[in-house]
Amino acid sequence: MGGQPMFILNEDSDRTQGKDAQSSNITAGKAVSEAVRTTLGPRGMDKMLVSDSGDVVITNDGATILDEMDIEHPAAQMISEVAETQESEVGDGTTTAAVLSGELLSQAEDLLDDDVHPTTIVEGYYQALSLAHEAIDEIKLDEELDDDLLETVARSSMTGKGTGDVSADRLAETVVDAVRRVATDDGVARDNITVYTQTGSSSSATRLVDGVLIDEEPVHDNMPRSVDNPQIAFVDDDIEVREASIDAEYNVSSVDDLNTAIEAEENELRGYAQHVIDLGVDVLFVDGDVADQVAAILAKNDVVAFEVGDDEGEELAHATGLSRAAGVQELEAEDLGSAGSIAVEKFGDEYVTFVEDGDAGQSVTVFARGGTEHVTDELERVLGDALDVVTAALDKGGVVPGAGATEIAVADYIRSEAASTEGRKQLAVEAFADAVDVLPRTLAENTGMDPIDALVDLRAEHESEGIAGIISEGQTGVIDDPIDLAVLDPAAVKHEAVESATEAATMIVRIDDVISAS
To answer: What is the pLDDT of residues 378-430, one digit of tens each?
Structure first.
């Protein structure tokens, strides 16, 4: 080769290697973590996120904040993905996972400065992760998950979040009621619970609807606005004149020919409408368009028709027990479902159709109200998180003490087991425990306590009493038993938070070369 260098990258490519790459990635990850850190806990602050188009989102939900932020750095995007994973798996703990990810990176940075190899750090972190799971399982409450306990879990998930003028107690009752209605021997059918928001009233008007809500009004003004005990059908196709399946040209040579063609089309449409009427259908939902002639005939016979979409079809099937027909001609009597009532209500300039007390009874809707769009958006997020954590508690393994008590127990357990780890890996295990401490320390700081003093007191109380957490009280916080004060979290949220945070942090720590195209 004559000693000439070989270039394998485009000359416009950027490349960062070694400690510079590690430092850049860790710094980016920590920056994202810091962005949500002040939102943690009952006294957490909100963030205002403004898009390029001027849309405003006000929230303290970690997943929403990170999703709305315009994050470009690839390592920072990994931390954002931690929150997405946490949200999709258990519905809560997104801020916890993001903050823990950032602190694990911070501890890893110190270890790297002390010449601990990245592989050693990764091995130590995963050993500590296994210990963390053991600690969470050990502190889990051995109690039956009755409604009172589940309402406690729901309230804990809402603490510090915007619920308007409605109390967390009342929302928690609504959430548990919703979950219980879709719970089966095989678990909770979480997808059968919908949160529907509507502005124009106070949050206290929020209620549970035993059925589904559809954002549509009847296709004809003369159709009834309410029907009791209706027979309901769903058609997965337009109800219009059929189009020829082949290209064809028709020559009309006289008025009689034209009238014949028009009459044939009208007869076809009348046939469709009459078929629906003959089956005894009271309410017809169509995933497509309904011809005006069909709508008029149905209206004369007091049949209500709606043009909806595929998602509404699934919800209606779960609620009313109907079967979706491929076309109106394929619709048969056994395809029909039924409900206690269907009613169309007007809210401002918008119409909402309530399908309640369906015979199948497998779908419920939390009808969330609010005075402004910002209030209803945040209330929707709060209710979604509460529904998810109650579902996680029922389906994925019980509850643990909240308020930082579980994290203190995890850190203490990891430190007690770290001594049995040989070599430099022990440093990484201990660093993991120190990273977990950031969660109660942040809770204390956001609550108005001195974070160092609070952490010392918390450890001492944990050693003497076996359980201790940081409880918000007035303008500050106190060290107390979170179980006695009804502050509980699903164990699944804690398991998922340490798991996803560890995966993200170790992935970033192992990167020593960043190559980016121009």
So the answer is: 888 888 888 888 888 888 778 888 888 899 999 999 998 888 888 888 999 99
Q: How far apart are CA 120 and CA 131, in angstroms?
A: 17
Which pLDDT belongs to residue 245?
A: 46
Instruction: Find residue 239's DSSP bridge partners.
Output: 290
Helices H / strands E in the chain, number of each: 16, 22
Q: Cα separation of 318 and 349, whole Å?
A: 29
From the list 165, 175, 144, 169, the residue with the least C-alpha distance to 155 is 169
pTM: 0.74
How far apart CA 43 and CA 45 sit, in angstroms, is 7
CA 253 to CA 276: how far, in whole Å? 35
Rg of the Cα trace of the chain? 29
- For the annotated catalytic residues, the residue numbers are 61, 94-95, 385
Are 505 and 124 in contact by the 8 Å Cβ rule? The answer is no
Handedness of CA 62, 67, 71, 75 (dihedral sign): positive
Left, alpha or beta for 318 (phi > 0: left; psi -120 to 50: alpha)?
alpha
